[in-house]
Write a structure and sequence with these properties.
Elements: H1 3-12, H2 20-32, H3 36-49, H4 54-66, H5 70-87, H6 90-104
Helix pairs in contact: 1-2, 2-3, 2-4, 3-4, 4-5, 5-6
Length: about 110
């Protein structure tokens, strides 16, 4: 488990290094630890710091999906696709488009 890493990242929050990358890193560690709800909050903070951070949008969608909030996951991926297109991040755009299509595909 990465409890030590999570604690070290949390200790930096609110300090001079607080920002999108720190919150993204903390969210990623939390997601890897299986805490999708806490990860979601950190990815939301990351996108609040930098709305063009397509990787944060991608993992925000994943955290929302793992937490059972498919509507929020779809919205995160839509916003992430727009951010990726604006930045020319083709790989992130493709990945989120696939995730969104799978989410919106009718069951059956």
């Amino acid at each position: 488990m990465n409890a030590g890493r999570i604690a070290a990242l949390r200790a930096q929050c609110g300090g001079p290094r607080d920002g999108a990358l720190l919150r993204f890193s903390l969210g990623n560690a939390l997601l890897e630890a299986g805490d999708a709800i806490a990860a979601r909050a950190e990815f939301e903070r990351a996108t609040g710091f930098d709305a063009a951070y397509s990787a944060a949008w991608k993992l925000l969608g994943r955290a929302c999906h793992q937490a059972g909030d498919t509507a929020a996951a779809a919205e995160a991926w839509r916003r992430g696709i727009a951010a990726a297109e604006a930045r020319g991040d083709e790989q992130a755009r493709k990945e989120m488009t696939v995730f969104l299509r799978r989410l919106e595909r009718p069951a059956g």
